[in-house]
Amino acid sequence: MEVIITKDCMTASTAAAKTISKLIRDKPNAVLGLATGSTPLPLYSELIRMHREEGLDFSGVTTFNLDEYIGLARDHPQSYNYFMWENLLKHINIRTENVHIPDGTTDDVPGFCKRYEEEILLAGGIDLQILGIGSDGHIGFNEPGSSFASRTRIKTLTEQTVADNARFFDGDEQDVPRHCITMGIGTIMDARMNLLLAFGKNKSKAISATIEGPVSAMTPASILQHHRTVRIFIDEAAASELKRQHYYRWVYNGKPAWQQDV
Ligand SMILES: N[C@@H]1[C@@H](O)[C@H](O)[C@@H](COP(=O)(O)O)O[C@@H]1O
């Protein structure tokens, strides 16, 4: 695990965007795993800027989104499909046929999930998965208790996640769907690299449990301790409960210049 503590979310997002742009320049047909939520928004803005000003080319890139609410149409303003097109996809030169987002309106959820997994395999697997984290430690919508071996499937949100996400639904918890389709933890663990972003004090407990806690299904993100290549970008507030913050800073500051591209 590489833990990178930055002074604010913009610095972290710019650094994370550099990791992604390097991947795309080295491998123009890279497969990206995308996340929603407020956390990756500055990262997506930076990728859009890189596309416009530095010619970052997405024409060969394929994407798979982590999750989607069940019951929301693709054009519903709170659907993750709408979110992705508004905040990233319509601003870059990605091919529509290369974009994959779970379909929350499918009438065959198990069949859809099976095909989603097959499509990831057919694309060659995910090179880099972007992750946010829920305040309860979830990744994608894999809530506490999710199996570490899980694949794309239906899940029920926790009351905590419904409460957290109500802010996107005018604060009304009744409007937040209770079910979703999400990549499984096993799916996320198959990505060749995972890049997790977390900002703000309300993520500090989940972050300390993820990085320094025991690996436990009660903190789904803690399984990343078993992943080979994970970069965690956090701001000072999200890092505030880490016991070994001094060490993470010391490691990063001691890195040779050629490694400090992040
Ligand atoms: N399914 C998404 C997660 O992928 C995301 O990481 C989380 C955190 O959202 P935010 O970044 O807005 O805090 O929200 C949702 O539950």
Describe the overall structure:
By secondary structure, this protein is of the alpha/beta class. The protein has a single domain (2-184, 209-233), classed as 3-Layer(aba) Sandwich (Rossmann fold), CATH 3.40.50.1360. The chain is 34% helix and 16% strand. The protein has nine helices and ten strands. The strands form two sheets. A seven-stranded parallel sheet has the order 1-10-9-6-2-3-5, sandwiched between helices. Helix 2 (41-54) links the parallel strand 2 (31-34) and strand 3. Helix 1 packs across helix 2. The protein is globular, with a radius of gyration of 17 Å. The two termini are 14 Å apart. Bound molecules: 2-amino-2-deoxy-6-O-phosphono-alpha-D-glucopyranose. Residues 35-39, 66-67, 132-134, 140-141, 161, 165 line the site of 2-amino-2-deoxy-6-O-phosphono-alpha-D-glucopyranose (GLP).
What are its keywords?
Rossmann fold, Glucosamine6P_isomerase_CS, hydrolase, 34% helix, binds 2-amino-2-deoxy-6-O-phosphono-alpha-D-glucopyranose, globular, 10 strands, alpha/beta, 3-stranded antiparallel beta sheet
What would you say about this model in short?
By secondary structure, the protein is α/β, with parallel strands linked by helices. The protein is 34% helix and 16% strand.
**What oligomeric state do these chains adopt?**
single chain
The secondary-structure class comes to: alpha/beta
Label the overall shape.
Answer: globular
The helix/strand series, from N terminus to C terminus, equals: EHEHEEHEHEEHEHEHEHH
Which spans have pLDDT < 50 for at least 5 consecutive residues?
Answer: none
Our Rg estimate from Cα atoms comes to 17 Å
What ligand species are in this complex? 2-amino-2-deoxy-6-O-phosphono-alpha-D-glucopyranose
- CATH top level is Alpha Beta
Counting structural domains, the number is 1
Please work out how many helical segments DSSP would assign.
Answer: 9
Strand order of the largest sheet: 1-10-9-6-2-3-5
What's the end-to-end separation, in Å?
Answer: 14 Å
Sketch the major β-sheet: 7 strands, parallel
Question: What share of the residues does DSSP label as strand, in percent?
Answer: 15-25%
CATH architecture: 3-Layer(aba) Sandwich
Organism: Luteolibacter algae
Family: Belongs to the glucosamine/galactosamine-6-phosphate isomerase family. NagB subfamily.
Active site: 67 (proton acceptor), 136 (for ring-opening step), 138 (proton acceptor), 143 (for ring-opening step)
Function: Catalyzes the reversible isomerization-deamination of glucosamine 6-phosphate (GlcN6P) to form fructose 6-phosphate (Fru6P) and ammonium ion.
